[in-house]
Amino acid sequence: MKKLYSVLIFLLLALSVHAADGVKDLMSQDTNTVKSLNKQAYEVRLTNPEQTISAGNKALNLAIKLNYTAGIGEAYRVMGLGQFYLNLPEDAINSYIKSLDIFTKENNLRGIAKVYNNIGSLYRDNDYDRSLEFFQKALEIGNNLSDKSLIATSYLNLGNFYFRKKSFSQALKYYNDSEYLFEILKDSVNLIQCQQNKGVVNFNIHQYGLAEKLLNDANNKAKDKDLNEAVASIDLTLADLYTAEGKFDLAEKAVTEGSTYALITKDAEMLHDFIYTHYQLEYKQKNYQLAVVDLSEVYHQDSVAKKTNLLSQLNLFEVKNKQEEEQKENELNIKRIQYDNIRFWGTAIVAGLLSVVIALLFSNVKRKAKTNFQLTALNSEVSRQKDNLDRVNHHLEEIIDERTKDLQIKNKKLSEYSSYLSHQIRGPIATLKGLMNLEKEGLVDKQECISMMDKCVLEIDEKIIEMSDMMHDIKSTL
After folding, report:
1. 130 C-beta neighbours (distance < 10 Å), count
2. What is the spatial distance between Cα 257 and Cα 125, in angstroms, rounded to a whole number?
3. Distance CA 166, CA 305 (A)
4. What average pLDDT does range 387-406 have in this prediction?
5. Cα→Cα distances 4→81, 317, 395, Å
6. pLDDT, average across residues 4-26
7. Which residues of 277-315 are buried (b: 16+ CB within 10 A; e: fewer)?
8. pLDDT digits over 87-127, tens only?
């Protein structure tokens, strides 16, 4: 019985381990799906930012369901990137802060450094000091982790920072350092950005020939990889470059092409920049009427932008509160999912144990019923054997009584024969003794004495034969 229980418990544990392994495998597949969605979202950030947000949102929902915190943090980060490229800074900072909060709780230094770089880029055109602070924090973590990818990205962002500070030589230094690391990493997308940024710096220091070469080369590579955002940005610089060189046809072509790519990416700010660049082109060609049309459009969009910024400032507190509420809701959802998972597996294990206990009880009852049936049959057999034994004993007692009585009778007869024979022999022997005494005393003739003695002997012999025959008769009756 103990062996059976041990085997059943072992089987239950084996099934539990197998089920746990199955769950782990399933969880591993699901987390891989989250990673794949986040990677897909990141890769299309320069092609289709809206798709970046969509894929990031799918990754976020699945990661929350799985309580996969690393996936949640990365999903918020890539969604922030999509919002950044769509010029939605409030949404982007909201996503970045959520991502940073999760990575900080998990002590995910690499994730923290990535978000620092992203936030620094968001502040890059508005708050230089805050931007530099975040880039330097990201670079410090990258150096501590010896992570070439983080270091290269930080160098690229620092180059962008110094470019906006008009420190062009320092910007080129960081771009070159970044380009060197990206070549080692074989990161073709960031190499295109490095080449573009170096072209922009050379344009600003009036190295038009080198700038044109770098920008056109970067533009062709960006088109090959469908980097729509990068193509639009490069075309914007090329339009300014061709306008400065007096190559108005090429400038017009760059504006037209770049505007198309900006429309594809739905980058309203870049579309605004193309309108302003087109105004400068028309003004330089002395097409003042067309220039005025472009300028009025620029003025209109600037007014709308100011109103939008004002509304954004007014709604900042509301956005912050909404962010905190969403964060709390996400934490509650995570805890709820954890509780549901624990309750499900607890219920499954209890149900499994109950099933085993019920099976053991049923088996025990069935075994006891079988044992009772066997004991009843055995008891009946023992009773039958006892009855047979009693009958045999009774029969033996009757046989013994009968034999005892027979022996008593035969012993009595034997005693009677013995007395009879003794009496019959004693007479001739007494006669023989008397003859011998007479012969000694000489009272009888010797010949006559011998004859009489011979006669006594014959009589004794006959009695002995008779006694022998009687003895044989007694044995035959025994």
Report:
1. 14
2. 25
3. 25
4. 77
5. 61, 67, 51
6. 49
7. bbbbbbbeeeeeeebeebbebbeebeeeeeeeeeeeeee
8. 888 899 999 999 999 999 999 999 999 999 999 998 887 88
Question: Contacts from 465-469 at CB under 8 Å and sequence distance 24+?
Answer: 466/421, 466/424, 467/417, 467/421, 467/424, 467/425
- Measured distance CA(476)–CA(473) in Å, rounded: 5
Q: Which residues contact 475 (CB under 8 A, 6 or more apart)?
A: none
> Alpha-carbon distance 266 to 264, whole Å?
5
CA-closest candidate to residue 232, choices 243, 224, 222, 242: 222
- Within 10 A of 18 (CB to CB), how many other CB atoms are there? 10
To the question of pTM greater than 0.85 for the whole model, the response is no
Structure token digits, residue 474: 């007694």
Cα separation of 230 and 47, whole Å?
8
C-alpha angle with apex 68: 63 to 70, nearest 5 degrees? 100
d(CA 264, CA 198): 25
CA angle 419, 420, 426 (to 5 degrees): 85
- pLDDT of 279: 81
Mean pLDDT of 416-439: 75
Q: Among 212, 207, 176, which residue's Cα sits nearest to residue 194? A: 176
Alpha helices (runs of H) in 266-315, residue ranges in sequence order: 268-284, 288-314
Tokens for 42, please give them: 């990141």
Q: Is the dihedral of CA 328, 331, 333, 336 positive or negative?
A: negative
Structure tokens at 82: 């999509």
Q: How far is the CA of 45 from the CAs of 4, 57, 102, 189, in angstroms?
A: 62, 14, 22, 11
The Cα 345–Cα 16 span in angstroms is 10
* Calpha distance 262→407 (Å, rounded): 139
